[in-house]
Amino acid sequence: MLLKKWKEFYNKEDFDYSTGYVDPYQFHRTFYFVQSAFQVTDEPFKPWTYVSKTITLICGIGVLTDACFSFYHAIDIFDMGLITEAGTYVLMLLYKMMTLTITKVNLPSYIHFMKCMKDDFGYICTKSEKYRKVFFETQLATWKLCVSTCLFMFCLANSLVLFAIGSLFFYLATHEPGDGTNRPLVFPFWAPGIDYTSSPAYDIAFNFANIGVLACTYNYTFVLQTNIVWVRQIASKAEMIEMCITDLLEGIQPANNEEEKRHYANLINYRMREIISQHQKMLLDSYASVFKKCLMFEQLVSSPVICMLAYCSAEKLDAGEIHTVMILLCVGAILILFLPCYLCTYLRMKVTRICDACWEIRFWDAGPNIRPYLILIMQRCLRPLPLQAPGFQEVSIKTFSSKMTSAYSLFNMLRQADLDL
To answer: Which residues cross the membrane (predicted)?
Structure first.
C-alpha cells in the first residue's frame, strides 16, 4: 500500500494536468517549498522560514569556523588526510555561504523566474493538446528529478548522521576502560585550548556536527532543485518555440488572390510575433546572473578536491581502513560537478534545435518580411550560453570530462609520489 502511494505521488497519477489551468506551485510542490524556505518568492514570508534560514546560517558560520581551525591544525602537523578532509569542508561551506549570499543579492532574478514560470504555465494552457502534452511530459520529468534529488539528499544526510551514531555505539560496545582510545568524532574538530575528547566539548561537537550535516544537505537540496527546475524550464520553453516554428507555415497555401495573400501574411505575422515574444523570455541571462559564479567556483576547485579525496581514500584503503565519509564526499563532489555540466549540455541541445527548426521549415514561402527574423533567431540560438568567463571553460559534459581527466592525472601523480600520510 505504501509503495503504491509512493508511485502515485512520484508519477503524479492523482494530478490532472490534461485540461484547465495548472498552477506551477501546486505541480512543483517540493521546488516551491524550498524556494519559500529560502525566501526567494514574491509572497509574504512565513514565520518558520526565518527560523529555518537563521539556523542554516548559524550552522554554516559555526561549522565553517571550526573547519578553518581544523584545516590550520592539519597544515601545522602536515597530516595529508586531515588537510584533504578539512579543506573539502572549508570549500563546501564557502560554497554554501556563497549560495546564501546569492539568494539575497539576486533575489529579483529568482522572483522574475517564478513569475515567468507562472506565465509559461498560463501560456501553455491556452495552446492545443499537442503542445500541452509535450510541455507537461517535460514538467513531469522535472518533477521526478526534483523528488529524486530530495530523496538522495535525505538519504545522504541521514546516512552520515547514522554512521556517526553507529560509530559511537560501536565504540561504547567494544570500549574497555584504560585502553587509551577516545570516543570517535566522524568529522574533524580542533580548536586551540579545547579538548574534544572529553565532555562537554565532545557532546557539543558531536551534536553540532550532526545538525551541521542536516543544514548543509538542506542547502544543497535548494541549490540542486533550483538548478534543475530553472534549466529544464528554459528547455521546455525552447521545445515550445521549436514546435511553434515547425507549425509556422501550417495551413499556408499559395494564394490565389490578394485577399488570401493578406490573410496568410497576417496569420504568419501573428504566429511570428508569438514566437519572437516567447524567444525573448528564454531566461538564459537571468540563469547566468544567478548561477555563473557558483559554476565557475565549481570549475576552479573540482579537480583538486576530487583528486585529493580519491587519493586519501585510496591511501586509507592501503592501510586497511575504510574512510566512509571521505568516499561519500568524493562521490558527492563528482555528482555536484556532473549535474550542472549535464544540464547545460541538455540546455545547449534544446536551444540548438530551435535553429534546426528554422532551417527545416519552408522559409521560402514565409515572405521577405519574416526571413530576417528567422535569421536573427538562428544567430541568437547559435551563440554560446552566457556561462563563460575569462580563464574558464564552457559548462558542458566536455568540461566535466576534462576536469575528471585532470583529477585522475593528479591522482596518479600523487600515488607515485613519496608522501607520508
So the answer is: 55-75, 87-107, 150-173, 322-343
Residue 208 burial (CB count, 10 A): 16
| Greater pLDDT, 102 or 389 | 102
Gap between the Cα atoms of 292 and 285, Å rounded: 10
What residue type is 104 in one-letter code? Answer: K
Reading the block at residue 9, the C-alpha cell is 505521488
The pLDDT value recorded for residue 244 is 85
Q: Concatenated DSSP letters for 58-118?
A: HHHHHHHHHHHHHHHHHHHHT-HHHHHHHHHHHHHHHHHHHHHHHHHHTHHHHHHHHHHHH
- pTM score of the predicted model: 0.85
Report the C-alpha gap between 420 and 391 in whole angstroms: 34
Q: Which residues contact 217 (CB under 8 A, 6 or more apart)?
A: 153, 154, 156, 157
**DSSP code, position 364:** G
pLDDT at 367: 67
| Cβ neighbours of residue 107 closer than 8 Å, sequence gap 6 or more | 40
Residue 68's pLDDT band, with cuts at 50, 70 and 90, is confident
Amino acid at 101: T
Cα 313 from Cα 317, distance rounded (Å) = 6
C-alpha cell at 281: 523570455
The proportion of the chain whose per-residue pLDDT surpasses 90, expressed as a percent, equals: 0
Residue ranges of alpha helices (H) inside 361-396 are 371-382
Contact criterion met (CB below 8 Å) for 196 and 205: yes
Q: Assess contact for 245 and 381: CB atoms under 8 A.
A: no
**Beta carbons of 49 and 61 less than 8 angstroms apart:** no
The structural domains of the chain, with segments of one domain joined by +, span 25-416
The total number of residues shown for the chain amounts to: 421
